[in-house]
Every structure is written in structure tokens, then in C-alpha cells.
Amino acid sequence: MLLSAVDYSQFCDDDVEKLSKSVRFLDLLSNLRREEYSEVFINLVPYANKSAVHVQEDFSLHRAYIIFRSLGLRHLVVVNEKNEVVGIITRKDLMGYNIEEKLLKVFNRSDSFISREMTFVTEVR
Predict the structure, then answer these.
(1) Short-list 115, 122, 51, CA closest to 83
(2) Which residues pair with 89 in a beta bridge?
(3) The overall pTM is greater than 0.70
């Protein structure tokens, strides 16, 4: 894809005003990074889902993949024996596993196709 040069004459004063507002917003945001706000916390307990699907850290990858497929998950939390979060598995992490499964199905189909052809050839002779 070839990018064209920007024609600055097509921008109007409103665009410049919007840009200056976003710069002011960034200034305000940087003020919140002050030390006085570093110890401020928000209690998210009322909003957190306490029944989230999770697996132990020594859980089978194959079974985790089945859980992903059957429940339509995007993320799967991994916990240790104390139920402390030690990681998260995403769809992207399991994409390679999915490819291996599909290739296995393709190879199994092609093997059965070849064996059927071989049977047909031996019957014709």
C-alpha cells in the first residue's frame, strides 16, 4: 500500500482546535501521575466476577483447549495451589494447537482417501 502525502490545506481550524484539546487532556493526565495519587486505590470487588473460569498451573493443554472451544472463551486464568493468579491463556496462545489439530484431520482424511484408492486399484486388477 502506497501512502500519499498529506495535504495540510484540507484541515480546517476545527481540527486544530480538537488537537489542542487532546494536548490539554494529556497535560491533565500527566498531572494525575503525581506522587500524591500513587497510593490511591479503587475497590473493584463489587465489579469483579468471582466465578471466573480458571485452571490449575499443571492442567492439561489439551483439556484447556477443549474448555476454550466448548465455552467460547477469550481468556482463561491460570492459578496455583493457593488460588493465586500465575498467568493467563488467550486464544492466541492456543492458535498453534488448533493448527496442529486441523493438520491432523487433513492428514487422516488424505490417508483414508489414499487407502480407498489403493483398494480400488487392487480390485480393478
Answers:
(1) 51
(2) 76
(3) no
What is the C-alpha separation between 117 and 109, in angstroms, rounded? 12
| Cα angle, residue 109 at apex, residues 112 and 101 outer, rounded to 5° | 140
Q: Which residue type sits at 2?
A: L
Phi/psi for 79 (5° steps) reads -125, 160
Question: What confidence tens digit (pLDDT) does each residue in 33-69 have?
Answer: 777 777 888 888 888 877 889 999 999 888 888 888 8
Residue-level pLDDT at 78: 93
Strand-pairing partners, residue 76, are 89
Longest dimension (CA), the chain: 89
Find, among 56, 52, 53, 64, the residue nearest to 80 by Cα.
56
Contact 78, 86 (CB under 8 A): yes
Phi, psi of 99 (to 5 degrees): -65, -45
Whether 65 contacts 98, CB under 8 Å: yes
